[in-house]
């Protein structure tokens, strides 16, 4: 009986040591993962910042284009090239597009 008890105690010690080694290896691997990959994460943040800047400049260009198109619709006289209904649709469309783009610009670029 005592021999069996010693055997079980030794088995438990071995299991506990194995668990401790696994936990130690897990934390060491997490530590090395952060050391190795944190520069890559930092570079991705810079790349995302460049993307936002490029997006904001594209939004400004598209706002200028849509504003110009809205002004063209606004200054046209009904009956010369387009009917009144077509001009009203044109004004409504470009005004909505300008509002949408300005909303996106306000929330992304601030």
Give a brief rundown of this model.
The protein has 110 residues and is mostly helical.
What does this structure look like?
The chain is 90% helix and 0% strand. The protein has 110 residues and is an all-alpha fold. The chain has one domain (2-108). It is rod-shaped and about 105 Å long. The termini are far apart. Residues 44-48 have low confidence and may be disordered.
Uncertain runs with pLDDT below 50, 5 residues or more?
A: 44-48
What portion of residues is helical?
over 70%
Tally the beta strands.
Answer: 0
Sheet having the most strands: none
Q: How many domains comprise the coordinates?
A: 1
Gap from first CA to last CA: 77 Å
Inertia-based shape: rod-shaped
Please write the string of helix (H) and strand (E) elements.
Answer: HH
Number of helices: 2
Proportion of residues in extended strands: under 5%
The radius of gyration over CA amounts to 33 Å
Overall mean pLDDT stands at 75
Quickly give the structural class: mainly alpha
Label this structure with key terms.
110 residues; mainly alpha
Draw up the topology in text.
Elements: H1 2-75, H2 84-108
Helix pairs in contact: 1-2
């Amino acid at each position: 009986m005592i021999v069996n008890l010693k055997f079980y105690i030794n088995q438990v010690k071995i299991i506990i040591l194995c668990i401790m080694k696994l936990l130690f290896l897990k934390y060491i691997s997490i530590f090395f993962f952060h050391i190795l990959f944190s520069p890559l994460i930092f570079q991705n943040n810079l790349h995302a910042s460049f993307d936002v800047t490029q997006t904001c400049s594209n939004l400004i260009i598209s706002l200028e284009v849509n504003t110009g198109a809205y002004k063209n619709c606004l200054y046209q006289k009904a009956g010369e090239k387009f009917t009144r209904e077509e001009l009203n649709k044109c004004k409504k469309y470009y005004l909505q597009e300008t509002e949408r783009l300005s909303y996106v610009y306000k929330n992304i670029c601030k």
